[in-house]
Amino acid sequence: MFLPIGDAPNPLTRPVMTWALIAANVLVYLAMIPAAARPADPRDPAFVEYVRTLASERGFDRRTLRVVAAGMTEYDLIVYRWGYKPAAPSLVTLLTSMFLHGGFMHLFGNMLFLWIYGDNVEHRLGRPGYLAAYLATGVAATLFDGMIRSASGIPSIGASGAISGVLGAYFIWFPHNRVRVMVFLFPFLMDVIEFPARVVLLFYLMVDNLLPFLFTGGRGTGVAYGAHIGGFFAGLALAWGVSRVTQRGRIPRGGRARGAPATGPDLAVAFDEAVSEGDLEGALALLFETPRALSRAAIGPEAKLRLGQELVRAGRPRSALAVFQRVLTDHPADDDVRAAAHLGAAAVQLRQLGMETAAYQHIYSALEESSDPALRARAAALLEELRTRTRAVPRLRR
Questions:
Q1: d(Cα 295, Cα 119) in Å, to the nearest integer?
Q2: According to the model, what pLDDT value does residue 159 have?
Q3: What is the DSSP code string of 95-143?
């Protein structure tokens, strides 16, 4: 058995929306317990319709069908009415189905994953954005599952599609986080082991969902593999899109390039002069408003890093972060340059933007990419600073 039990690092902010979603799911489950203890009324039209649906889609014989009907509860009929049925789609059940669960272990597993992964994603998106993303990826997950079994009248329920969306976003934004996993392989191994977050999430996607889905076609298993897969990819797409929009939003606009030079050498000279003279608007315009291929080739990475540091000193952290990120995309082959850009971005995120877990990703990358003692010392100092601003920081391999 492999059971995730925690992750690191975590922001110090309280994940109020994650707690609220967990509370909503638990309260709905508790409210349904009395209904789960009462037998269903055979005269209820929903009872007859549900039994016929099960007989048609599952191929139950008469004996099995009598057993199923005898064990049916009022909660089963609630699930039939408020779960999402692909053959009878409804906007209302797209939402209500996310808050119904098939039993305690179903609820426990979903809420455990939401508790582990939700706080970092909530911190990244903010509470309203996180709630919108949770619901949107949950809807996408349910619709994807519905496409696979479009003719089915058997309802699907559970928060796992929306939570898979959270996992997909986590995969994009927190690649260097670590997840603590309880490994129970009695009698050979019983321990808690830290794994890279992406390893754990890929295991969830591939082994827990894609492989069973390919073997079964996603039908008749009682597990909504299609919802898990659809939610995960919806989360990947959402995180990628948000990152692109956010990065564009950080790019300064409106500066004047003072007659932007048309040739590489002239551009490099003009950029250096602008930075040296404190004309940060002019330097930003030369970097971001000149055709990308020209600015990438003409303006050296050290000059861009210097602009980033000047922007930090000028109290313009978002513009500085955009410059450091531009260095990372423009100069992928120079490890020390990339490490310096990672550390510049980490310092801005940690000290000025309150993005501690995002800063950790950059610190980790800097330590991975550079063996320069000075850069590694800077990374170690930032890591120690980070420890005071987060609930837990995993130990890094040196």
A1: 38
A2: 97
A3: HHGGG--SSHHHHHHHHHHHHHHHHHHHHHH-HHHHHHHHHHHHHHHHH
